[in-house]
Amino acid sequence: MLKRNSRDSNGKKKVWGIVFTGIVVLLLFYLGFSLGQGSVRRDAEQQPQEITGSSNGEEEKEKQQADEEAAPEVQAEGKEKIAGITLNMTKNEVLSLLGKDYHEEYVEEGFYYGESYSVWNYPTGISLLIGAETEQVLEIAVTSPDFPTVLGAKVGDKAKDVLAKYEEKYPVPESIHGSGKLIGWFNLADHDLIIFDFDLEDGSTFNEDVQPDSPVEQIKLTNWKYFD
Fold first, then answer.
1. Sign of the CA dihedral 174, 176, 180, 183?
2. Residue 220: which region, alpha, beta or left (left: phi > 0; alpha: psi -120 to 50)?
């Protein structure tokens, strides 16, 4: 009897062992299947985000490229000009705008301009320095009210009006000689410089004793590199 009971007990233990093992295997299988499904769901959820991000990246790249292509036009429109003429414009472009009715003076020694140049003096009150090598506008000067600036300032305007208009948009440079700010001078983009001269008779573009009602007698568009 004792031996039979022992065998029955051992048999039951084996059966329960097999059942337990089966249950563990099933649990592990279910757990692995659940984890796999969760990974698939996460991948499926992330996929649209990756596609959307890629699309946004392409749109941003296209927008940046469009902005870069448009930048030169914006810069050109904002560049200071007089009578439609800008610095570095070619002499052929000048001729198309102002014609050939000018008196020319040739200067062999270029001094601080770095090249020989010609001065084109138009009877209408505008003169230009044209580089002999570059064939581009190096400097512009006007003594007639017929040629206003981009901001509408012109010869004959009062100092208080012109200075207020330009001081609102452009900085006034300091004198390299330590004599304070250069009245009537304004720093533009690309080291360009516009100068409102209130006294032509002194032969200098450095203004002294400027009164609020002092009229502009000359407007000059040039570049700082010619003052080095």
1. negative
2. beta
Q: What is the pTM of this model?
A: 0.65
**Judgement on whether residues 71 and 105 belong to the same structural domain of the protein:** no
Could you tell me which residues come within 8 angstroms of residue 173 by beta carbon, excluding any fewer than 6 positions away?
181, 182, 185, 186, 187, 193
Do 162 and 216 share a domain, yes or no?
Answer: yes
Cα separation of 75 and 41, whole Å? Answer: 51
> Considering only CA atoms, which of 228, 161, 158, 224 is closest in space to residue 195?
224
Write out the residue range of the structural domain in which residue 212 sits. Answer: 91-227
> What is the number of other CB atoms lying within 10 angstroms of the CB of residue 163?
22
Question: DSSP alpha helices (H): ranges in the chain?
Answer: 2-78, 91-98, 159-167
Q: Percent helix, strand, coil in the chain (nearest 5)?
A: 45, 20, 35
Q: How far apart are CA 195 and CA 106, in angstroms?
A: 24
Residues 144, 196: one domain? yes
Encode pLDDT of 107-164 as tens digits: 999 888 999 999 999 999 999 999 999 999 999 999 999 999 999 999 999 999 999 9
Give the separation between CA 137 and CA 132, rounded to whole angstroms: 10
Tokens of 106: 């040739």
Q: How far apart are CA 155 and CA 143, in angstroms?
A: 6
Short-list 70, 63, 192, CA closest to 139:
192
Q: How far is CA 181 from CA 3, 141, 161, in A?
A: 119, 22, 18
